Each structure stands twice: as structure tokens, then as C-alpha cells.
UniProtKB/TrEMBL annotation:
The protein's name: GntR family transcriptional regulator
Family matches, as Pfam families: GntR, UTRA
PROSITE patterns reported in the protein's UniProt record: HTH_GNTR
Keywords for this protein: DNA-binding, Transcription, Transcription regulation
UniProt-listed InterPro entries: Bact_HTH_transcr_reg (IPR050679), Chorismate_lyase_/UTRA_dom_sf (IPR028978), Tscrpt_reg_HTH_GntR (IPR000524), UTRA (IPR011663), WH-like_DNA-bd_sf (IPR036388), WH_DNA-bd_sf (IPR036390)
Domain HTH gntR-type per the UniProt entry, residue ranges: 10-78
UniProt-listed SUPFAM superfamilies: Chorismate lyase-like, Winged helix' DNA-binding domain
PANTHER family reported for this sequence: MANNOSYL-D-GLYCERATE TRANSPORT/METABOLISM SYSTEM REPRESSOR MNGR-RELATED (PTHR44846), MANNOSYL-D-GLYCERATE TRANSPORT_METABOLISM SYSTEM REPRESSOR MNGR-RELATED (PTHR44846:SF1)
GO molecular function: DNA binding; DNA-binding transcription factor activity
Signal peptide: none
Amino acid sequence: MKPLQSDSVIPLYHQLKERLKQSIDSGDWKPGDQIPSEHQLMNDYNVSRNTAKKAIEELVQDGLLYRIQGKGTFVAKPKLMQQSLMGLYSFSKGFKEKGMVPNDVIIDIREVKPTPEIMEELQVTGDEQVIEMKRLRCVDDDPYILESSFIPKRVVPNIEPLKRVGETSLYDLLEEEFNVVVSRAREAFEPVLIRSDESQYLKTEAGKPALLLERTAFDTSGRPVEFCRSIVRGDRCRFYTELT
């Protein structure tokens, strides 16, 4: 095993981090494999505990490793989704283009009374009903997003076609069944921790990092037709943009 360069301007923890990352990138360590303990890394690379700990912590923060208390540190699955924010996008279409099999599991579809936030986003009154569609978005049966879409009843007078979401995308269905074309959307992101009730659907531990994504979609006339709240698993998804 090639030793680290103690006389290098590159800190030892960063050198060790890159060595560990190389083992992941090369496939020597596969998703689910347990990596050497801090004590073993100290002996293998002749570094201090703080150096080994910091290298591992940064890889955990980067989403390449994860810890299980009392058991050790393991290689994480690669990011399932890497989505650009440069334009209007569809999760389902994006996965299909990559040869993956998206699958939406509809948990519930019902009429609900809008909250003040939903009233503001959808520009409806408290007397109007909205349709709430709660679904779990999966790829190859691996859950990655827990999503609730709110649609004005005037946009979707008949909820029966919504049961086909999963066979086709929501926006395609709105166009085919209700002549509603989504032309743009406004989104906001916020880091959150997964709650215990959400963890049961997402098959992960409560307290894990996630993104709260809120989207308001508009039709060609500028009318809001959907308000969506999504809990996106931070260990399986990554969003990016380009700056010019």
C-alpha cells in the first residue's frame, strides 16, 4: 500500500479521502460494502485518528459513504438521479432516457380543503376543493421521492384519470385528458430531515438528509394548475445548474 506524502502541501486527510474515493470509483469497494475502521486506516496509512475520522466524515457528507451506529461505515449506492435545473423537466422521462424503469405508486387520491399556502399558490378560494394525489416515486422499485400534488378541482373535474399516473406522466395526462398544457414552473428547495412517517415510505432512516422541493406549475395562459410538495432522498438524488 503506497504511503501518504507527509511532506506534501495537500493535507493528509484529503490525501486519505482521495485514496478511499478511488477504491469506490474503481469498484474495489461496492455499494453496501463495509470499509475499514478508523483504527485500521490509522494503521494502514500511519495517520492519526483525527485524520482518518475527517476523511471519512467528508465522504459521508459527499454521499459516498454512510454510517450505521454500532456497525460501521459502508459504501453508499450511487446517486440515482442527477437533474439539471436549467429548464422544465420530468423525472419519469429523464429516467426512461437513461434506460431505467420509473414506477409511481399512488398512495391516495382525494378531494381536500386547501390550506392557506395552497390557496395562495393555486389562486383558489377557501370554498374551492382541490385534488390531492399522494404518490411514491420509484426507480427499479427503489423509492426516492415522496410527493403530494395539489390540483384545483376546476382543472381536474374527474379524478378517475389520475389513477393512470405512473402509466404516463402527470403533465402528459393533464394534456391528454383535460387539455391542460404545463408550460413553466417555479420551484424552491430547502434542506430538511426525513420524518419517521416519511421514512416508512422512503425505506430509509428517520433523520436522514433530504430536500423539500416545492413546485408551482402554470399552463400556457399563466394559470397555476398544480402545487407539488416533494421529499427527495438526499442520498439518491442530486440537482445541479450551470452558471454563465
